[in-house]
Amino acid sequence: MAQSVPSTPPHTQPSTGKKWKECGQIKTTPHVEEPSGITTHPNGDIALTSDWSPVTVFSRNGDVKHVIQGSPSSILDIAISPSNKYIIPSEHGINEFYIYDSQGVLVSTTPTHNIDNKPSRPTSVAVDSTGRIIVALGWDGHKTVSIHQPDGTLISKYETTSSPYNLTCTPDDKLIISFDDNTLQILSSSV
Fold it and tell me: Cα(148)–Cα(99) distance, rounded to whole angstroms?
């Protein structure tokens, strides 16, 4: 009798890439419950956002280094600039994003407006290799992405086809945006 060989389901492929092994684990509670956004600092620190807590920065060993005082809670995303500043979209209902230095001190607050210049709440932030801040404004059906100087000054904004939800920049400064209609768009910089 021939042995049957289990087949790989059609929706999964065997891994041919790098194999990962656990090299550490950090317990985030009681400092952060239900993390929602994460970024790493060039020195290895880990910054977490949460629906319930302000941004908390852990060392790579898991020690709490600092809490970004005054940072909003109920935030979904965080980015870090090449100059080591934390970029944080506002909490629910506030139409702005915040820039904090590497020690968690507020540097500036920048208001956000959609393509029609109406106040709009950010859903996601990213930073490209030059330090430009890219903000998705997709709450309440808004369809705008805005691009800012590293200090928060608006450079430009453009209308998207759907509401942008999350965005990130690749190392070669391509912008990847996820939309509420389950699509992704990849853009190269023209600014």
Answer: 12
- Alpha-carbon distance of 64 to 47, in angstroms, equals 10
Number of structural domains (the chain) is: 1
Cα within 13 Å of Cα(45), Cβ side: 21
Question: Which of helix, strand or coil describes residue 79?
Answer: strand
Whether residue 81 is predicted with pLDDT greater than 60 in this model: the reply is: yes
pTM reported for the whole predicted model:
0.79
Domain range holding 172? 35-188
Residue 152 pLDDT > 90: yes
Contact assessment for residue 104 and residue 67, using Cβ atoms and an 8 Å cutoff? yes
pLDDT at 60 over 50: yes
Which candidate, 190, 128, 131, places its Cα nearest to that of 156? 190
- Contact call for residues 156 and 126 (beta carbons, < 8 A): no
Q: Name which residue leads in pLDDT, 27 or 57.
A: 57
Most distant CA atoms of the chain, gap in Å: 73
Domain CATH number, residue 111: 2.120.10.30
pLDDT at residue 5, rounded to an integer:
47
59 φ/ψ sector (left φ>0, alpha ψ -120 to 50, else beta)? beta
